[in-house]
Amino acid sequence: MADVGWERALRRRLATPRGQLELFGATFVVAVVIAMVAATQRPFFEGYVREKYPTPTAATEKLAASLAMQGDALRSRSEAERTGLYQAFMQGDGYEAVPRALAEADPEGTARRLVRTWHAGSDAQRRRALAFVAAAQSPALLDAIERAALRSRPASTELSQALQDARDALSSPGQS
Prior knowledge:
Elements: H1 5-14, H2 17-40, H3 42-46, H4 58-67, H5 79-91, H6 98-105, H7 107-120, H8 123-136, H9 139-151, H10 157-171
């Protein structure tokens, strides 16, 4: 293939230190422009941020049903089964016994799951995490979420108010 005139001139230019410096500088400027565009479009990108949960399995459904009868059934269960119960709760109703049972059986693991939801979840998932904490009646879990809220992206005003309401509900003396 024969060199076109501009190709030959470009090759000669890039063969010099000045040409390489110009190429490096141009690449740097383009990278900075792309980074600035990405940084200023945070609301667009955050619209796609949310945790993904698999559909609850039949075994998870059965385990959730057994929790209503025996609260300490989770202590002997695997981490995967406890995670499945948490994910089932986060997806829908019918898992009222799950928060308290998980908070009692595995407080550290439950706090990790809630913090992950707070960091990676949508606002709806964050509200569901607060509902989990309220149902579990666990100030320790709420503390974990509050620490996560300090380090993560800013919450909406509504979500900040829900977080404060959850704190007030757990700290009021009438709670069991």
